[in-house]
Amino acid sequence: MPRRAGGLSPCARDYARALSNPFTGPLACVPSYPALMSKKVRTWAKGVLSTSGTTGFGFVIASPEFGAANDLTSVVASTSTYALAAIDVSAAGVQTSASNSEYPVASFGSTATTAQYRVVASGLRIRYVGTELNRGGQIVGLSDPTHTSLDGRSLSDFDAEVQSRRFPVDRKWLTVLYRPVVDVDDEFKGTFPNGATDPNWYMGFALAGASATTALTYEWEYYSIYEYQGRNIRGMAPSHYDPTGYAAVHSVSQMGKHLLPSDQDASTRSGSFLSEVGNYLGSALSWGVDHAGGLIDIGKAAYSGYNAVTSTTGTMALLEDVAPLAGLLL
To answer: Does the N-terminal peptide bond of residue 145 adopt cis geometry, omega within 30 degrees of 0?
Structure first.
């Protein structure tokens, strides 16, 4: 993949922008190995939620994976009749929503004729739309760092997580974002987490009104970007492979603060995240330049050792693994 001088390749830049802004960012691919044909699609669902009129508690939680299908519950939110002080997706007074994906869950599988998907980016955002007279209370956003469901948690449980963030109740969009954690998160899948009836709703907000008996109203939006592949998927286009850019984006997504819950404008956050990825990549390249002499010395030593060894099968096997790298460094 062509690379900008001193920076990221175009595909890695688009991936960074999508990950930090799934709402209006580019329809990117995940630039991991291998490069494949895929269809890039943005899906969404939108709605209104209320805090409870008896406990003051409210919530909205979303599953990045379930939005790939149009008949699975991607989002669960409270209504004014919800009567609990913690999240219970099976309780009375909840509402559920699916995405507008063009594929039902029956389309997916592991055979040649079924489809597979992978999450490129996903985000959930809310903002207060009630009266100024009633505006008040607390909002805590969280994208669980282990992708564990938020079902069963209270506002204090949200607050206890180191990666959660607390916000005042105002009319700005507040956002939580998906972050890939382990390798399997970026692989194509034909099944959904924990089966089709028990999704991991691990992005969400817990809410508390200023008064337990006054329900507050919020609007929410859930957007995701997916890649789809399969023999019967129409509209596929090439994806790209950029190991260096992919590693930089993934590293900053885990170590930086740009993808944590935020009240920052989406485009501003995206630019800040992309800048940090560029700085990370630049630092890595600078380290390589600064230590090039040492790396070459190591390569020469390994290559010389390889030529000198004529016995000891185990040593030969080790040096055979090192030799190609040594040859490149010479």
So the answer is: no
H or E element at residue 302? helix 292-308
Distance CA 206, CA 187 (A): 30
Question: What residues are paired with 70 via a beta bridge?
Answer: none
Residue with tokens 């382990």: 182
Over residues 286-316, the pLDDT tens digits come to 544 444 455 455 555 544 554 554 444 444 4
Sheet holding 94-97, edge to edge: 94-97, 75-78, 57-62, 203-209, 137-143, 165-167
Lookup: tokens for 150 = 């938020």
CA distances from 223 to 119, 193, 330 (A): 11, 19, 49
At residue 263, does pLDDT exceed 70? yes
| Range 36-238 has CATH code 3.40.190.10 | no
3-class secondary structure, 228: strand
**How far from the centroid of its chain's Cα atoms is residue 138's Cα?**
25
Q: Buried b / exposed e across 266-300, counting CB within 10 Å, b at 16+? A: beebbebbbebbbebbeeeeeeeeeeeeeeeeebe
Sheet arrangement for strand 37-50: 174-177, 116-128, 217-229, 37-50, 237-238
The CA distance from 175 to 222, in Å, is 10
Measured between its terminal Cα atoms, the distance across the chain in Å is 25
CA distance 184 to 31: 14
Domain residue ranges of the chain, discontinuous segments joined by +: 36-238, 291-329
- Asked if residues 189 and 64 have their Cβ atoms less than 8 Å apart, the reply is no
> How confident is residue 330, by pLDDT bands cut at 50, 70 and 90?
very low
For the entire predicted model, the pTM comes to 0.83
219 and 127 Cβ atoms separated by less than 8 Å? yes
Going by the DSSP 8-state scheme, the letter that residue 305 receives in this structure is H
Q: What is the pLDDT of residues 60-118, one digit of tens each?
A: 999 999 999 999 999 999 999 999 999 999 999 999 999 999 999 999 999 989 999 99
41 φ/ψ angles, rounded to the nearest 5 degrees: -140, 140
